[in-house]
Every structure is written in C-alpha cells, then in structure tokens.
Amino acid sequence: MPTARANGIELHYRFDGPEDGVRLVFTNSLFSRLEMWDAQIDALTGAGYRVLRYDARGHGRSEAPDGPYSIEMLADDLAGLMDAVGWERAHICGLSMGGMVGQMMGTRYPDRVRALILCDTSAYMGAGEVWEPRVQTGLAEGVEGLVESSVTRWFTPESMIRLPDEVEKVRAMIRATPLAGFIGCCRAFQGFDHREANRTITAPTLVIVGEHDPGTPPSHARVIRGAIPGAELEIIEDAAHLTNIEAPERFNAALLDFLARAAAPR
C-alpha cells in the first residue's frame, strides 16, 4: 500500500471504490489502523463512494515521531494527505480520536469539508484526569498493559462474546501501536477543548454514539450536537465505543442516509 509525505512525515494510506466516486475520508481512533473501517468498505464503495483511509501519525504503518502531538497537528496531517493525493474537498468521518480530528478540520479547514460524521468522540476529554494514568501505565508496562482495559471499554460484554474475531483484531492493532504514538496522541487529547469552537462549524454534521459508550458517552455527543448548527444525533443501541465494528449494518445505514441527504440540493 502507498505512503505519502504529509506535514513532514510519511503517512500510509489506501483507496477503495471507483476513481470518480464521491470522496469520503475515514480517520481512525487511538490504537487503530485503517483496517478498523473494513466493515464499512463494501457498503460505501457499493454506493459509489471513493474512500480514502490512512494510518494516523504514530499508528500502524505511518511514522511515529516522538511527541507531544496536538489535534491541530493531526488535522494538518490529514489536510497534507489530501493535498498529496489531489483531493481538495471530501466528506470526513472520524471515530474517537478521528472525531476530534474531524471537529478540527471543520474549523481549521472548513472549505475542505463537505460534511462531517463525528463518531463516539468528544469536544473535551479533560486536561489530565483521564489520560495521565493511561500514559503512566504505558510508560510502566508498554502498550500491552493497556490492551484489556481498552477492549473492555470499547465493546459491550455481549459484543466481546458475539464478535471474538473482531475483538482479537482490535487487540492486535493495540499491540502493534508504537508507544511514542500512543503517548503523543494522549498529549493531544489533554490539550483539546473544542466546545466553543464547534459553534463555528458550518458543514452538515452527523454525530453517532453507542448507547453504552463509557468514555465518550451520549452526553458528550449531545454537547457536540448542541454546539454545531443543524447537527443530527444518532444513538446506536446495544453498542459501546466502536459502533462501526459492533453494529456495522446500523452504522452504515445511518452514514449512507446522512451522506445522501447532505449532498442533496438545499
């Protein structure tokens, strides 16, 4: 798979779907690779979308420079990748960390965003109380010390039993994440507060959240929806944090319905 120079680093990326299709970017959660969106690809490409996926800075097969990172930096990475592949504008769908990047794209690069889908994310995660203990665990035990605590937050207990292969794939993605990338992104979260800035987003926006998401719960989704003019909210029942993996049919249906309406003449 190809890489591109973007914002000073090499980012690994992949295209799916027809070359002349409507352009959509997926941007990933912490501890993941572009494969986290596998369950969306057939539905999106079958509907005629040209999908760009990539491994974020510090993850997968992209470079993992020492941090700290910032959400502004991660948005600049995405804008640089779009430049490198010749995409001026696109729909942007991000989950968790990717949803923070999406919010930043909506304010930092508004002319490049056709529509936003912000999934299982937050406009503010707290400066230190959430992420500093996880950083310290990573420093003491490596990413292995964060595997089980992450998957048990990201999947409901029922999904842990129902989707053993998917859960194991997520475990493998976590284990493959460089420690520098994890810590760099944690520092980015600690510096992120987009609650007021979101009021300036003008792109059509859908907020998706799992009913049982413990880290970025529906209350966080409602804050985002309330700040962005005209934003819509979709709560996916019986799902936690990785709604696109736990409930792909419902997730894909909500995504496709919204994108069709967002692209319609207004």
Rounded to an integer in angstroms, the radius of gyration calculated over CA atoms is 17 Å
How many domains? The number is 1
Q: Can you give the helix content as a percent range?
A: 40-55%
The averaged pLDDT comes out at 96
CATH first level: which class?
Alpha Beta
Report the uncertain regions.
none
Oligomer: single chain
CATH fold-level assignment: Rossmann fold
Number of E-state strands: 8
CATH architecture: 3-Layer(aba) Sandwich
CATH superfamily: Alpha/Beta hydrolase fold, catalytic domain
What is the helix tally? 11
Form type: globular
Tell me the fraction of residues in β-strands, as a range: 15-25%
Structural class: alpha/beta
Q: Please give the order of strands in the largest beta sheet.
A: 1-2-4-3-5-6-7-8
Q: Please give the alpha-carbon distance between the first and last residues.
A: 38 Å
Characterize the biggest β-sheet.
8 strands, mixed
Order of helices and strands: EEEHEHEHEHHHHHEHEHH
Structural key phrases:
266 residues; alpha/beta; Rossmann fold; eight-stranded mixed beta sheet; 8 strands; 42% helix; globular
Task: Give the SSE layout.
Blueprint: E1 3-6, E2 9-16, E3 22-27, H1 38-46, E4 49-54, H2 71-85, E5 90-95, H3 97-108, E6 113-119, H4 132-141, H5 147-154, H6 157-162, H7 164-175, H8 179-190, E7 205-210, H9 218-227, E8 232-236, H10 243-246, H11 248-262
Parallel strand pairs: 3-4, 3-5, 5-6, 6-7, 7-8
Antiparallel strand pairs: 1-2, 2-4
Helix pairs in contact: 1-11, 2-3, 4-8
Protein architecture, described:
This protein has about 270 residues and is of the alpha/beta class. The protein has a single domain, classed as Rossmann fold, CATH 3.40.50.1820. About 40% of the residues lie in helices and about 20% in strands. Helix 2 packs across helix 3 and helix 4 packs antiparallel against helix 8. It is globular, with a radius of gyration of 17 Å.
